[in-house]
C-alpha cells in the first residue's frame, strides 16, 4: 500500500496502577529502513539546440515498492527516485519551477524479467543556467507473474522540459542492468490473470503512436488496445491479434490529452480478468499559445502519509490485589493524514510489550482493544476500524484504508483498552509500551 511508501512509528506508554496510581513514559519514533541507493554509469544526450556533446556521468538512484512480499497476480507499485542525475541544465538559461516531466523504466530480474514504465509529476525546483538537475521520483506498477525473488534495478530515464521549447534529455544505463536497488519475494499461488503489457514510451505528444507489447493473452484472441483517463476509457483504441503463444505487438495512436495510461483486453469491454494494465502513459501538451494569449498552468503537489497522537501516556484504571480484573482506559487519539494523492491505501498496526512491575510482569497477551475510526468529510478514502481483540507482542491492525483509483484524506483513530490483570498480581505500578506503525 504505498504511492512512494513512508513508514512512521509512535511508541506510547500504558501505565497500570495496582493498589496505587503511577505512570510515565516517553514518545519514541524509531527510524524506518533506508532503501538501498545505487550508483551507475549513464550516457546522456543533451538537446541538439544546446550544441554540446553527450554527457557520460554517474547517476545515483533508489527504488522502493509498496509491497515487498506480494503473491503471484498482485500488482506492485514501484517508485524510482533519481537522487543525483548524471545530466544538468545544458543551457545558460535558468529554468523555472515545475517545468520538468521525468519518465523512465525499472528493470526486473530474477524470478520475473521485463521493464516497468514509470512517470513523474511535472514538478521541480528552479534550475540555474548550467546547474545540476534536482532529484525527482517516478512511479509505475507491474503485475507479479512468477513466484520467487524479483530484483529491481534502475533503468533508462528521460528528462523532458517544457519552457519556451519542448526539449528532452534522454539518459541510458551505460552497462545494463544497473545494480539491484530493491528485491521483492513473491509467494507461489495460482495467478488469476497473468496477462501483461509494456509500452515503447511512457509519454508522447498528442497524436503520437506508442507500441504496446503484450504476453500471456489467449492465443489467437482479438485484443483491444485503449487509452485510459483515470478509470474511464478514451476514444483512442486499436485492435491486434495475439499469436500462437499469446503474444502481440501493436501501435496505438494517443490523442486524448487527459490520458493517464494504456490497457489491453480481450472481449468487448475492459475487464480485470481478461486485461492487462494500465501501463502509465502521459501526453505532453505542446499546443502553441495563440498570439496575444497567455497559457496558465497550475500544479497540485503530492504530500506525505503521516500520523500524530494527542499524547504519549495512557493511565489505565486501578484494580485490587486479590481480585484483579479489567484495568481499562482509552488510547490517546491518533490522527492519520494521507496527502499523497495516489492509488495506495494505508494500514495502522500496533503491538505491545509485557507490562513490567515490582518483581513481576503482566503478559502482553492480556491487553485487548476495541478500535474505532472516523473519516473527515470530503476524504476520498474511507477509514476502516480493525477488529476488537488481543494486541499482544505479535500485533494487530488498529485501522486501515484500502487501495483505490484515488486515495487520501484525514482520519481520527481511537480505541478502548482493557488489560486483564491476574488476581494476585503484586501491588505496584506496571508499564508496557504500545508501538504504532503506519505503512
Automatic annotation (TrEMBL):
Residues 1-28 form the signal peptide. It comes from Streptomyces caeni. InterPro entries: TAT_signal. Keywords: Signal. It comes from the Bacteria. This is Beta-xylosidase.
Amino acid at each position: 500500500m504505498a504511492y512512494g511508501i513512508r513508514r512512521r512509528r509512535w511508541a506510547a506508554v500504558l501505565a497500570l496502577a495496582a493498589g496505587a496510581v503511577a505512570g510515565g513514559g516517553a514518545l519514541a519514533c524509531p527510524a524506518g529502513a533506508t532503501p538501498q541507493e545505487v550508483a551507475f554509469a549513464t550516457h546522456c544526450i543533451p538537446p541538439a539546440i544546446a550544441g554540446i556533446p553527450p554527457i557520460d556521468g554517474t547517476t545515483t538512484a533508489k527504488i522502493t515498492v509498496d509491497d515487498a512480499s506480494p503473491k503471484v497476480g498482485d500488482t506492485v507499485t514501484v517508485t524510482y527516485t533519481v537522487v543525483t542525475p548524471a545530466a544538468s541544465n545544458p543551457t545558460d538559461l535558468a529554468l523555472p519551477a515545475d517545468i520538468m516531466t521525468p519518465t523512465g523504466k525499472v528493470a526486473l530480474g530474477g524470478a520475473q524479467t521485463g521493464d516497468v514504465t514509470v512517470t513523474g509529476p511535472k514538478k521541480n525546483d528552479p534550475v540555474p543556467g548550467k546547474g545540476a538537475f534536482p532529484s525527482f521520483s517516478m512511479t509505475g506498477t507491474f503485475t507479479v507473474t512468477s513466484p520467487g525473488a524479483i530484483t529491481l534495478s534502475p533503468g533508462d530515464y528521460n528528462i523532458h522540459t517544457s519552457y519556451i521549447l519542448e526539449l528532452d534529455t534522454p539518459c541510458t544505463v551505460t552497462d545494463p542492468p544497473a545494480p539491484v536497488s530493491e528485491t521483492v519475494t513473491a509467494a507461489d499461488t495460482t495467478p488469476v490473470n497473468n496477462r501483461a503489457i509494456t509500452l515503447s514510451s511512457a509519454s508522447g505528444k498528442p497524436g503520437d503512436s506508442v507500441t504496446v507489447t503484450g504476453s500471456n493473452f489467449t492465443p489467437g484472441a482479438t485484443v483491444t488496445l485503449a487509452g485510459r483517463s483515470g478509470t474511464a476509457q478514451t476514444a483512442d483504441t486499436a485492435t491486434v491479434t495475439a499469436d500462437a503463444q499469446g503474444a502481440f505487438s501493436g501501435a496505438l495512436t494517443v490523442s486524448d490529452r487527459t490520458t493517464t495510461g494504456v490497457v489491453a483486453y480481450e472481449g468487448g469491454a475492459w475487464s480485470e480478468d481478461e486485461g492487462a494494465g494500465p501501463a502509465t502513459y502521459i501526453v505532453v501538451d505542446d499546443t502553441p499559445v495563440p498570439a496575444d494569449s497567455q497559457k496558465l498552468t497550475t500544479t497540485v503537489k503530492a504530500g506525505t502519509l503521516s500520523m500524530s497522537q494527542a499524547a504519549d501516556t495512557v493511565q489505565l484504571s486501578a484494580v485490587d490485589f486479590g481480585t484483579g480484573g479489567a484495568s481499562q482506559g482509552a488510547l490517546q487519539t491518533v490522527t492519520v493524514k494521507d496527502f499523497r494523492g495516489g492509488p495506495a491505501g494505508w494500514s495502522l498496526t500496533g503491538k505491545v510489550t509485557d507490562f513490567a512491575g515490582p518483581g513481576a510482569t503482566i503478559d502482553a497477551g492480556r491487553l485487548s482493544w476495541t478500535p474505532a475510526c472516523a473519516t473527515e468529510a470530503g476524504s476520498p478514502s474511507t477509514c476502516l476500524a480493525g477488529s476488537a481483540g488481543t494486541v499482544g507482542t505479535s500485533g494487530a491492525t488498529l485501522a486501515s484504508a484500502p487501495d483505490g483509483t484515488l486515495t487520501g484524506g484525514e482520519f481520527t483513530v481511537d480505541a478502548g483498552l482493557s488489560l486483564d490483570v491476574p488476581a494476585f498480581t503484586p501491588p505496584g505500578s506496571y508499564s508496557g509500551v504500545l508501538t504504532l506503525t503506519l505503512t
